[in-house]
Amino acid sequence: MSENITCPMLSVSPSRGLVDEKFQVVVQNLLPRQEVTLHALMRSEDDDLWEAFGHYISDAKGAVKVAEDESVGGSYEGKEPMGLLWSMRPVPGSRTGLRLRKKDITKPMVVHISVYWGHVSQGFTETTALACTIVERWYMAPGVQRVEVSEDGIIGTLFLPAGPGPFPGILDLWGGGGGLVEYRSALLASNGYAALALEYMSPKTMSGKAQIGNQYFEAAFRFLQEHPQVCADRVAMFGLSFGTSVALGIAVYSTMIQPKCLVCVSGSHVQPVRGSLADVFKEIGKNQHKTRYDNEKRVIWRDLLLPIPSDPNKKVDMGQLRCPLLFILGEDDQNWPASESAQDMEKMMKEAGNSHLLTVLSYADAGHLIEPPYTPHVCSSNFMTVQQREKVVVLWGGQAKGHAHAQEDSWQKTLAFLEQHLYTSTDHVAPSPQ
């Protein structure tokens, strides 16, 4: 009978915003203490469906406010303003090993949000919704420019913020999955930074004569510095996973460039000193016997760099680092020994007297893939190895709620760190070790 005497109203504000912006979801005109389900559905660019849902009970005025009310069940529980996004998972019956990643950042992610009577957990497509709305989530803010780069041997995409500039620059380095990944750079540009997404681990850049070394990254860094819309003395490096190895090695050993600051996520300083990418892979290859598998046959690679070596020739000399470093890690990372690496890095820097340059953000329930906020946590997914071109399922680790908190908190602190050192700080360079 309640369906006949009420006409629920569903609103989401803003209905169009950036990926790292929160929205407000409100349902009105319900009966007091009415049980309802809020459901979010999105189709990926690979044509897979992802969903999330929360069970709510309306207040005495017949309203549900997701930012204030608790979900009592569903894909997330508790007061979670953005739970309808970060708890998304493939719908039942989907292909295995999926990971949600935006490829065409010139288009938004379109999320359909609906409200249903009762506490529903399945069969959403067979049930009539009480009200629906559509939300657009963008990586590119209005006015951000996307410029393809293919010159002087550099392959990548440059994102420039709206306005005349010049802007601080960021060289954006992804990990062992290879390819050209643009979405974080687009979001950085939307927050005021000229960001270059660099392709460097792909068949295109690692075959035949295209084997790349440190000069490739130095050239990319200089490309940013020399761009007319970039502040030459305010260029940072941002590395994830294997990108951390590249960023740390360049920052410490390059005689050609000096980053203003570094952001490193889920990585390590363990690598052959002054080695090329091929040398790093060769060293890791020696430890393939340390690969483990869980009871679902998912690959665990974190032991390949353990124990952290005492031999100084096998790790970056962090005592020589001369710029501020923000190091972000998940304590449940099953892919890289980020926690152990951070502890050793901190020890090395304390002994060298430059530990004031290091800030570590450590999250207990986070895994390896710490990405921009409100994007779904992926515990494991399909992965194509660059060297062997072999498809495996990799265990990344993390728990959904804790990982979501890590992504939100670390992103806010990353933006604050970048603003401090690229926009508002004076030169912050430690003296070279004697």
UniProtKB/TrEMBL annotation:
InterPro entries: AB_hydrolase_fold (IPR029058), Acyl-CoA_thioEstase_long-chain (IPR016662), BAAT_C (IPR014940), Thio_Ohase/aa_AcTrfase (IPR006862), Thio_Ohase/BAAT_N (IPR042490). This is Uncharacterized protein. Residues 20-151 form the Acyl-CoA thioester hydrolase/bile acid-CoA amino acid N-acetyltransferase domain. GO terms for molecular function: fatty acyl-CoA hydrolase activity. The active site is at 241 (charge relay system), 333 (charge relay system), 368 (charge relay system). It comes from the Eukaryota. Residues 215-423 form the BAAT/Acyl-CoA thioester hydrolase C-terminal domain. It holds the Pfam family BAAT_C. GO terms for biological process: acyl-CoA metabolic process; fatty acid metabolic process. Signal peptide: none annotated. SUPFAM superfamilies: alpha/beta-Hydrolases. It comes from Albula goreensis. Belongs to the C/M/P thioester hydrolase family.
